[in-house]
Amino acid sequence: MTVDHYGRKVPKHAHGSVNLEHQTSSTQMIMDGVMELYERIVNPDLLVRRVTIAANRVVDEKKAGKEEHFEQMDLFTDYEALARQRMEQEEKFAKERKLQEAMLSVKRKYGKNAILKGMNLQEGARTMERNNQIGGHKA
Questions:
Q1: What is the reported pLDDT for 48?
Q2: Hey, which of 14, 51, 107, 136 would disulfide with 41, CB 3.0 to 4.6 Å?
Q3: What is the largest CA-CA distance in the chain?
Q4: What percent of the chain clears pLDDT 90, i.e. is strictly above it?
Q5: CA-to-CA distance for 104 and 59, rounded, in angstroms?
Q6: pLDDT at position 13, please?
């Protein structure tokens, strides 16, 4: 708890950061990192008023894979299994990438409200309304 400028006791702000394993455009990896951070720093007994997320050191996707990675080898690691695991992960990311591109092409052709999550159709949801606004304003 901390004291605000009116002299009231208020909960302390939760701040934190997380580093991803490597540069990625994978929604799943980014969401996993955000959820791990959220669960680590947010007190579940308090209400959340605002969440702000910032991405640092963002690079073009074409430049991201250019860096070489080196690893010290040892006798106790099964490198064939690691290679298979990396290949499976790459296939999973390629499938996710194709899905993202398909969703974007449908949204470009038919509009932002063409593909929505089920929660966006619930009562009180504002996504469809906000998608029709220009810069957050009714036009």
A1: 86
A2: 14
A3: 66
A4: 42
A5: 20
A6: 85
C-alpha gyration radius of the chain: 21
Nearest partner of 49 among 13, 80, 85, 103, judged by Cα: 13
* Of 4, 32, 1, the residue nearest 18 (C-alpha): 32
Using CA atoms, how far apart are residues 1 and 11, in angstroms rounded to an integer? 4
Amino acid at 111: G
Q: For 66-81, what is each residue's pLDDT tens digit? A: 667 788 889 999 999 9
And the tokens for 126? 């504002």
Task: Say how far apart CA 133 and CA 121 lie, in whole Å.
Answer: 17
- Residue indicated by tokens 């980014």: 30
pLDDT at 36: 95
